[in-house]
Amino acid sequence: MISIYFVRHALPDYSFDDDATMPLTSEGKRDSLKVLDKLNDVHFDFCLSSPYKRTVETILPLVKQLNLDLHTDPRLKERARGKINNNYQELLKKRWDNFDFSEENGESMNSLQQRNIAVLFEILSKHKNENILFSTHGAALSSILNYFNPNFGYLDFVRIQNFTPYILKIDFNEQNKIIGQKELLIISK
User: Fold this and answer.
1) Which 3 state secondary structure label does DSSP give 68?
2) CATH number, position 42
3) Residue 97 in domain
4) One GO cellular component from the entry (predicted)?
5) Which residues does residue 163 pair with via DSSP β-bridges, in sequence order?
6) What residue numbers bound the domain in which 13 lies?
């Protein structure tokens, strides 16, 4: 069995224009200590994160405390956001209704899902019987959940959209099927 502890990043500072370098707010940094408190007693065999600053900052206190080697993978980056204007919720629903849809200069959920699932299956094949720390983004995590459960959709995403941070533990069997999952931390903003 492989246990993956998915950590959705803490509250970012949305005043930054560059998505990749957007840091956590001071509140987000405080909440990252709650991630540390919740997972401090887990023995992690491997640690992986999106390369984005907010995902790394969210798990950094835990990584330092447990003296983990932090690996990043560019395929785990956030979904490329295109031109949104004032119709964010409408576009969000449209992306969930049609996984191949993307706004101008944006990325489809299908593309996001393919990137994340490729990394996940690499982890599942290389890290049998291990505990994995996996720092990610809300849309990325939701695309993974949808892959394993096609009924996970728009309303499920909306439910977790404001959980920053959020920890979801998922256990996989030898056939890479989900055999259990549990929400370990929900901080709603």
Assistant:
1) coil
2) 3.40.50.1240
3) no
4) cytoplasm
5) 188
6) 2-83+113-188
Asked if 40 and 184 touch (Cβ cutoff 8 Å), the reply is no
Half-sphere exposure of 98 (CA within 13 A, CB side): 7
Whether 124 maps to a domain, the answer reads yes
> How many domains are there within the chain?
1
Q: What is the DSSP string of 153-168?
A: -HHHHHHHTTEEEEEE
The answer to whether residue 96 is domain-embedded is: no
- In whole angstroms, give the CA distance from residue 164 to residue 185: 9
| Cα-based distances in Å from 101 to 12, 31, 95, 156 | 26, 34, 6, 19
Cα separation values, 39 from 7, 103, 146, Å: 10, 37, 25
Phi, psi of 142, deg, nearest 5:
-65, -35
Is 123 domain-assigned?
Answer: yes
What mean pLDDT comes out for the span 43-53? 98
> In this structure, what is the dihedral angle of CA atoms 153, 150, 166, 66, given to the nearest 10 degrees?
-160
pTM (predicted TM-score):
0.96
What single-letter amino acid sits at 37? Answer: D
Residue 113 C-beta-side C-alpha neighbours within 13 Å: 20
pLDDT in tens, 151-176: 999 999 999 999 999 999 999 999 99
Cα separation, 119 vs 48, whole angstroms? 10
